[in-house]
Write a structure and sequence with these properties.
16-stranded antiparallel barrel; 22 strands; mainly beta; Porin; two-stranded antiparallel ribbon; 5 helices
Length: about 500
């Protein structure tokens, strides 16, 4: 852009020889204004590409050591002040549907022709006037799992599976309207997952909101709110998989969310997930979550969260039977089971989250409880689960924590392998417990997991988990105490 301005100046000089000697102040001022405008547009484009337009000004780089001043003018160095950050620079830039209103406004107000923004696997397209934004989306998660050591051969299985195989799109119109849709093909069937439209705006400086309507992903628990392509382990914790509404992770409804500098809160009201059943009324689920970062600096964050839900079940969905993953998703015989449980009328669940990170080390603890209401005056069925997880990036990268949403996202790898670097390498560990023994037929179990994640770049990673599991089921094909090991691996691409 600066070269174009210089070319314009040379053309003006060539066209007007007298100007080469004595340009007028008005002509010089016009050239300066044009150059300043192009520089501003260039900066805006770079900000959008790097996702840094919302960052506070970084400290100036250190200059060469200055000479020691004379004793009579020497002054004490000012105390160092930690700079707080409004969002995590270690995350990839958000797509059109996940941007806040400031980021969306910047993209709209700085048009520079039709542009293509590359940042996380696939491009973001911007119209010439900056009004329309569009991005294709996709997710490929391929797993292999092998279980051994069980006393029952029915559990000693080696299997493969697609954890996710998604295609979708997202976009926006102006600074306020946005949309997103994805379909999953992982079970060789088309399954609509995320599908919504929304509106975002600013209430006051530092306070934003958005409202989404459509087929919505739950905002519930730390890992329950983290996408399957961003979880630090191959499977979410037992809190996320067991303390959950009967309809699962999705439902059709509305979700207003409020964001401030140190946290967010959401309220979701939905019916059932996408289905073809309209002969009876849907169930109803009301779900709320809030998180707060009481400590938030460049390299340290503390996370506190709370959530809860209440659901009234449809007359067509009164079965509360659960068979919950404990040693890997792709072994259908390895589950903690409630046994057959019919006649449910509703459930209420709640949980807490506490954790954070300091430099490359992160820790997160979660606990939850779910009460299932039964008809005929029977006692409620109670599910309990808790987990403690942690990780450490030996390459020095910061954990991909998203303080806007209180969940994990995709990391912005400092030294990608495709640029000759090592990528980001993370060591992880987790202990989790699940208890269904409030039922006569209910089981219990626990698992300890060690893992390693290798992020080749911001959208490609390899994961390996080694799990020792222990179950004690009172019903099903394998009853009584049993234990063993599962080794699982995943290759994942998200774009």
């Amino acid at each position: 852009m600066i070269l174009r301005t210089g070319a314009a100046l040379l053309a003006l000089v060539a066209a007007t020889p007298a100007l080469a000697q004595t340009p007028t102040q008005a002509e010089l001022a016009e050239l300066v204004r044009a150059q300043a405008a192009e520089i501003a547009a260039l900066r805006a484009r770079l900000d959008r590409i790097e996702g840094q337009q919302a960052l506070a000004a970084a400290p100036a780089p250190a200059s060469a050591p200055a000479q020691t001043p004379p004793p009579q003018v020497a002054q004490a160095a000012p105390p160092q002040v930690r700079r707080t950050v409004p969002f995590a620079p270690q995350l990839v830039p958000p797509g059109p549907a996940d941007r806040d209103v400031a980021q969306a406004t910047a993209a709209r107000d700085n048009p520079s022709g039709v542009t293509t923004e590359w940042g996380a696997g696939l491009p973001v397209f911007h119209s010439a006037d900056g009004v329309y934004t569009f991005k294709p989306r996709g997710r490929i998660l391929a797993d292999v799992s092998s279980t051994f050591g069980s006393r029952s051969d029915t559990r000693n299985l080696t299997t493969t599976g697609m954890r996710a195989l998604r295609l979708g799109l997202e976009g926006g119109v102006g600074a306020h309207f946005f949309y997103q849709m994805e379909a999953d093909f992982s079970e060789n069937e088309v399954d609509v997952v995320t599908a919504f439209m929304g509106w975002r705006n600013r209430i006051a400086p530092g306070i934003d909101y958005d409202v989404r309507a459509g087929h919505l992903f739950n905002d519930r628990s730390f890992e329950g709110s983290t996408g399957s392509d961003s979880t630090p382990f191959l499977e979410r914790t037992t809190v996320a998989t067991a303390i959950i509404p009967q309809r699962g992770f999705y439902g059709i409804g509305i979700m207003p969310r409020l964001f401030w500098k140190t946290g967010h809160a959401s309220l979701t009201v939905t019916g059932d997930r996408v289905d073809g059943t309209q002969a009876v009324s849907d169930g109803r689920t009301v779900l709320g979550r809030a998180h707060w970062n009481p400590v938030k600096t460049d390299d340290t964050v503390m996370h506190v969260g709370i959530w809860g839900f209440d659901e009234s079940l449809s007359s067509a969905a009164t079965t509360l039977t659960r068979n919950t993953v404990i040693g890997g998703r792709f072994n259908g015989a390895l589950r903690v089971s409630t046994g057959t449980l019919l006649g449910g009328t509703g459930t209420t669940g709640y949980g807490v989250e506490l954790g954070g990170y300091r430099g490359p080390l992160w820790v997160m603890g979660e606990a939850g409880r779910r009460n299932a209401r039964l008809d005929g005056g029977r006692s409620d069925f109670v599910s309990k689960a808790w987990s403690l997880s942690g990780g450490f990036f030996i390459t020095g990268d910061l954990p991909p924590y998203n303080p806007r949403l209180g969940s994990f996202g995709q990391p912005k790898v400092k030294r990608p392998t495709f640029d000759g670097g090592p990528g980001a390498i993370e060591l992880t560990g987790r202990y989790e417990s699940l208890d269904y023994t409030d039922l006569v037929t209910g089981g219990e179990g626990w698992a300890g997991t060690l893992g390693v994640n290798w992020y080749l770049n911001s959208f490609t990673r390899v994961q390996v988990n080694a799990i020792h599991w222990d179950t004690d089921n009172r019903s099903g094909a394998v009853t009584g105490a049993d234990s063993g090991e599962t080794v699982s691996a995943r290759v994942a691409v998200t774009f």
